[in-house]
Amino acid sequence: MTASVPHPPSVSQDRVRAIDWLRGIAVLFMIQTHSLALLTPELRRSAWTGRLLKLDGLVAPAFIFSAGFAVALLMVRSAAAGVVRERVRRNARRALEVLAVATLVNWAWFPLLREPKWILRMDILQCVGLCLLLVLPVAAALASRPRALAGVSLALSLALFGVAPLGEHVPEPWATLTNKSSFAPFPLLPWLGFAFLGAFAGTLAGAWGRVALARGLVALVGLGIAGTLAADTLFALYPHHRFFVSNPSNSATRFAWVCAALLALMWLEARVPAQARPSWARRFIEVFGTSSLSAYFFHEMLLFYRVGGVLSFDRFWRDRAEWGLYWVLTAALVLATWGLCLAWDRLERLAKTALQGATQRLKARSALPQ
Predict the structure, then answer these.
(1) Cβ neighbour number for residue 322 with a 10 Å cutoff
(2) Whole-model pTM?
(3) Is 37 within 8 Å of 333 (Cβ atoms)?
(4) Which of 76-80, 307-311, 356-360 shows the lowest per-residue confidence on average (mean pLDDT)?
(5) Is residue 306 predicted with pLDDT exceeding 80?
(6) How many CB atoms lie within 10 A of CB 264?
(7) Is 186 left (phi over 0), alpha (psi -120 to 50) or beta?
(8) CA torsion 178→107→136→255, rounded to 10°?
């Protein structure tokens, strides 16, 4: 798949805003998915909810694909600029931030101090953080050789999808990393495969630009369709397993849709003039696309965490909302999360500015003659 792409004399500096849009749209669907807890039990069992859940099944693949994409893209460009070590430190710090927030969220739901085992619970943020840490060394080691990085990333992703059904038969304690359960809603299998698939796409974008990325995504959509059509064959290859959890055909269907969505967003991006003033819709989506970690934390707290025992959407509306009220509440939760993301982003910028100023003043004082 990478053999038809010429080796670049230098890396591409093309901006791929579509990946931020994909992540931002995924945040919206994530909030909508979690808000289903507000529906009445009868409506949660309805056909319409089933249709929504099929669409919502693309949220986690989109997030993890985007994470791998960003790591590889930045590593390839950093290698060309000779700053790989600096970028590795920054990316590792970002992965640790994700794991720190994951631990904070777990602490909100489980008694970590009394039962420390809950710190190991593998939910989506733990999965994303570990995926970042596992993709990072591969991307850093091969960043100066993008052809090799693309090939290795693609091979690893397909291998991980291929062994995922076997992960359901791994015994404890390793089953936490390989088998979906209430303690591990998002184990590494098959989700790490989406991270390396994103790394493959990010390498194409970083090394050869938007055209190569589009061609690679088209190839992945075709591969995903082929995997979807081979569902019966792929299911029969393995011992008994849950098809919609770990079968390679199910993963192929998901990454085909994610890649198709990214292609559509790239098509849309190409039709937006480079100097055009961003529309309100674009600004709205990009806030979530660039602040997805904050969005996850804030919407979870607003929806489920009972501040002082009373303040949460869950406290007032769980199991009570008909469809009309559900959509109103979901829109309110989206807007509240968006506002908190903006406020947090501004607070972070102010804190960084203040810290940089204090550091500069300390350096200036230390340089003065004693």
Answers:
(1) 12
(2) 0.91
(3) no
(4) 307-311
(5) no
(6) 14
(7) beta
(8) 50
